């Protein structure tokens, strides 16, 4: 798809709908598995350190492939990329659904990740070239609904399926939808791609894979193995060195695989930093809340998922509204209001107790999601709006890559803080409890006391982790005051070829 061709008044809504449904089920699949992990551990007889690879492996594949999507979008047509991505996702879903041993399940999950890595940047890029700047906020608001609503309803749907069916139903449920979307793509996508003289730099791909893969693996492993593990800091060091060499190589090339020169545009650079910080803060709610609800409060998977549903509905309602508000008022005021809400609700989440009511949790989580809905998409859209059209593939690929990296860093940071602080609190609470004993406790009493100590210690560990997210969100809030409404920068190297517009090409006219 040629990035230099101007938009028309009638974007290809049918094509966008197909791409949107494909991206929706890919994003939904990301969170479906979270609540099912205990069932998978029992059924396939694997430990927690092993089963977490279903998330880590998926993230690694995304981190390795997403940087290459800028090249792929320039080289191949939307039809070719979409069919390849949905084909991989469908094959991975079928394989995982019939897995009887963990290696097959992991293989299916990573094949899914390969398809998902292509879908999201592809959809965002098509939307950027299909809508003019003044209408892009509303369009990206709908895109944000896909990005945020799908993973939000994942826990609810997963909880219901797990309580009524086997965990494999999570994949069997997605399979027919994936097949239908693949068939729709085959019949509806008709765009063609002119041959472009661009080749993939194999060394850049290798450096990118080692760099992003090493960083993602290192941070993803830190929560379990600790920061002092040679496997953790070793892969981080290798990843950072490889990434530095990769960036230097990209800056020296005329046609880089991933163009880091886009960071010379200030609003894009600022939006990228804010989005990474917000993503790290967002993971606190999605990661720590289910742990608190299920492990400490003993609430069922279905009720835990239902607790997050009102927040998901609010997110769905707000995303298109936020998009229209962005078109009218810009991203700064939305980001400031949204981040103030995020900071305040994060603080209240750091004050959880063993008796916090279910209603209180629903309201707090829903208000937090309301704040989040006003931040990510306006900031991202404002940053992308400043880029010349030929940089859209690089901007979308960069944003997706940074989202994966910041998500992994945020997850590792919060899990490590929660684990370390839980250990510290357990020693303190345990020592205080023993000091108040007047006689030697029986084994039964000692076991019950130990369980209570661990519950209170984990609660305090979760509260400490939430407190850190208050600081993270506060950093994003401070940065949001520097946001300005972006105008598309002039690109003197851009050549506008004659021919039909991109919307017409996508529609197959």
Helix content: over 70%
Enumerate how many helices there are, as a single number: 19
Which series of helices and strands comes N to C?
HHHHHHHHHHHHHHHHHHH
CATH architecture of the largest domain, by name, is: Up-down Bundle
* Overall pLDDT confidence: 79
What is the total tally of β strands?
0
Poorly predicted spans = 1-8, 494-509
Specify Rg, calculated over alpha carbons.
Answer: 23 Å
Question: CATH homologous superfamily of the largest domain - what is it?
Answer: MFS general substrate transporter like domains
Subcellular location: Cell membrane
Domain Major facilitator superfamily (MFS) profile: 15-488
Transmembrane segments: 12-33, 53-74, 81-105, 111-131, 138-157, 169-189, 201-220, 232-248, 268-292, 304-321, 333-350, 465-483
GO molecular function, one term: transmembrane transporter activity
Task: Please give a structural write-up.
This protein has 509 residues and is mainly α. It folds into two domains: 13-200 and 257-430 and 450-507, Growth Hormone, Chain: A, CATH 1.20.1250; 201-256. It has 19 helices and no strands. The protein has helices at 13-32, 37-44, 48-51, 53-65, 69-75, 78-97, 102-130, 133-164, 169-188, 202-225, 230-252, 266-296, 301-329, 331-349, 358-372, 376-385, 392-435, 443-480, 502-507. The longest helix has 44 residues, at 392-435. GO terms for molecular function: transmembrane transporter activity. Keywords: Cell membrane, Membrane, Transmembrane, Transmembrane helix, Transport. The chain crosses the membrane at residues 12-33, 53-74, 81-105, 111-131, 138-157, 169-189, 201-220, 232-248, 268-292, 304-321, 333-350, 465-483. It comes from Neobacillus bataviensis LMG 21833.
């Amino acid at each position: 798809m040629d990035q230099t061709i101007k938009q028309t008044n009638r974007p290809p809504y049918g094509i966008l709908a197909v791409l949107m449904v494909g991206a929706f089920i890919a994003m939904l699949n990301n969170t479906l598995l979270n609540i099912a992990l205990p069932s998978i551990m029992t059924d396939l007889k694997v430990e927690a350190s092993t089963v977490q690879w279903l998330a880590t492996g998926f993230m690694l594949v995304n981190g390795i492939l997403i940087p290459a999507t800028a090249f792929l979008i320039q080289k191949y047509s939307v039809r070719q990329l979409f069919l390849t991505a949905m084909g991989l996702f469908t094959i991975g879903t079928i394989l995982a659904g019939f897995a009887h041993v963990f290696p097959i399940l992991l293989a299916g999950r990573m094949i899914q990740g390969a398809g998902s890595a292509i879908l999201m940047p592809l959809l965002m890029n098509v939307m950027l070239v299909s809508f003019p700047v003044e209408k892009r906020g509303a369009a990206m608001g709908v895109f944000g609904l896909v990005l945020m609503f799908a993973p939000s309803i994942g826990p609810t749907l997963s909880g219901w399926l797990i309580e009524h069916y086997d965990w494999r139903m999570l994949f069997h449920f997605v399979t027919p939808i994936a097949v239908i979307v693949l068939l729709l793509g085959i019949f509806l996508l008709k765009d063609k791609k002119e041959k472009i003289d661009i080749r993939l730099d194999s060394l850049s791909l290798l450096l990118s894979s080692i760099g992003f893969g090493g960083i993602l693996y290192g941070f993803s492993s830190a929560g379990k193995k600790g920061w002092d593990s040679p496997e953790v800091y070793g892969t981080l060091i290798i990843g950072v060195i490889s990434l530095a060499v990769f960036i230097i190589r990209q800056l020296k090339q005329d046609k880089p695989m991933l163009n880091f020169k886009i960071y010379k545009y200030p609003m894009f650079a600022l939006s990228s930093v804010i989005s990474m910080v917000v993503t790290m803060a967002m993971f606190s709610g999605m990661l720590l809340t289910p742990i608190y609800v299920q492990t400490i409060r003993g609430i069922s998977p279905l009720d835990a998922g239902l607790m997050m549903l009102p927040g998901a509905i609010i997110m769905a309602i707000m995303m298109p509204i936020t998009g229209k508000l962005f078109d009218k008022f810009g991203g700064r005021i939305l980001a400031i209001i949204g981040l103030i809400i995020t900071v305040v609700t994060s603080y209240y989440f750091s004050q959880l107790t063993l008796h916090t009511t279910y209603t209180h949790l629903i309201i707090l989580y829903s208000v937090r999601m309301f704040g989040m809905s006003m931040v990510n998409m306006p900031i991202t859209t404002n940053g992308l709006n400043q880029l010349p059209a030929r940089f859209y593939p690089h901007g979308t690929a960069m944003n997706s890559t940074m989202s994966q990296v910041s998500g992994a860093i945020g997850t590792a940071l919060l899990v490590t803080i929660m684990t370390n602080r839980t250990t510290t609190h357990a020693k303190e609470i345990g020592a205080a409890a023993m000091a108040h004993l007047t006689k030697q406790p029986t084994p039964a009493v000692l076991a019950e006391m130990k369980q209570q100590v661990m519950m209170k210690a984990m609660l305090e560990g979760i509260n400490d982790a939430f407190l850190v997210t208050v600081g993270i969100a506060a950093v994003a809030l401070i940065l949001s005051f520097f946001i300005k409404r972006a105008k598309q920068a002039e690109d003197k190297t851009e050549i506008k070829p004659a021919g039909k517009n991109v919307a017409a090409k996508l529609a197959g006219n």
